[in-house]
């Protein structure tokens, strides 16, 4: 298990916490593997009824580690890393409820993973950003399907293509999150919601979740997005964007 992922079980809730606050909880390949391990294992553990995703520090997650992105782009990888795909698949196929508590910034995967959660608590002043197109990439985690279903095409396209931040109150009003609270209460409220879900009849809970999600379509969209994501990641425009980011300069225009 990655040193940057911690876990504990409390009243039927598996609390999985991103613990890399010095790097804004940016997610590396080992972290993706550890997250997938925990979500997968929880499905067969009778002690666990709900999985709660939290983070330490002032940022939920800065998304993928940019240095890793740059390395993948330079290597011209033909597919996304296996650990990333495992995590996305674990989210999509989780039978037990997923809950998240979001404070500070949630960038990229920090936003799209919320679409797989059954209850989301955000801080009023949280900043949700999905800057995929600005990074010369495409969205992932079946978000091109789930985000459109959740908030409509016009809002979803603007969110992905323009990369403008959304605050927590907007996330609630648009249906991406359930509850907005003061940032100091995010973890408490998210844990409370998770415990309430964990106290309910598990069979009925998992059956209801299954009926509400078209898992086959979600998995197919994850595959289609991942293939395009890998193609984009190896493109000249993506390599230039990441080189410019690491060099702290504007990217050059590409014809």
Description:
- The chain is an alpha/beta fold and 255 residues long.
- It has a single domain (5-184, 201-206), classed as 2-enoyl-CoA Hydratase, Chain A, domain 1 (Alpha-Beta Complex), CATH 3.90.226.
- The chain is 48% helix and 15% strand.
- The strands form 2 sheets. A 6-stranded mixed sheet has the order 1-2-3-4-6-9, with helices on both faces. Strands 5-7-8 form a 3-stranded mixed sheet.
- Keywords: Isomerase, Lyase, Peroxisome.
- Pfam families: ECH_1.
Give me some keywords for this one.
255 residues; alpha/beta; 2-enoyl-CoA Hydratase, Chain A, domain 1; six-stranded mixed β-sheet; three-stranded mixed β-sheet; 11 helices; 15% strand; globular; isomerase; lyase; peroxisome; delta(3)-delta(2)-enoyl-CoA isomerase activity; Enoyl-CoA_hydra/iso
Biggest sheet, strands in spatial order?
1-2-3-4-6-9
Low-pLDDT residue spans? none
Q: Strand-and-helix sequence, N→C?
A: EEHEHHEEHEEHHEHEHHHH
Instruction: Tell me the structural class.
Output: alpha/beta
Treating each run of at least 4 consecutive H or I residues as one helix, how many helices?
11
Oligomeric state of the chains present here: single chain
* CATH topology call: 2-enoyl-CoA Hydratase, Chain A, domain 1
Tell me about the largest β-sheet: 6 strands, mixed
In the CATH scheme, the class would be Alpha Beta
Shape: globular
> Which superfamily, in CATH terms, is the homologous superfamily?
2-enoyl-CoA Hydratase, Chain A, domain 1
Mean pLDDT: 94
Using only C-alpha atoms, the radius of gyration works out to: 17 Å
Amino- and carboxy-terminal Cα gap: 43 Å
For the record, the CATH architecture stands as: Alpha-Beta Complex
- The percent range for strand residues is 15-25%
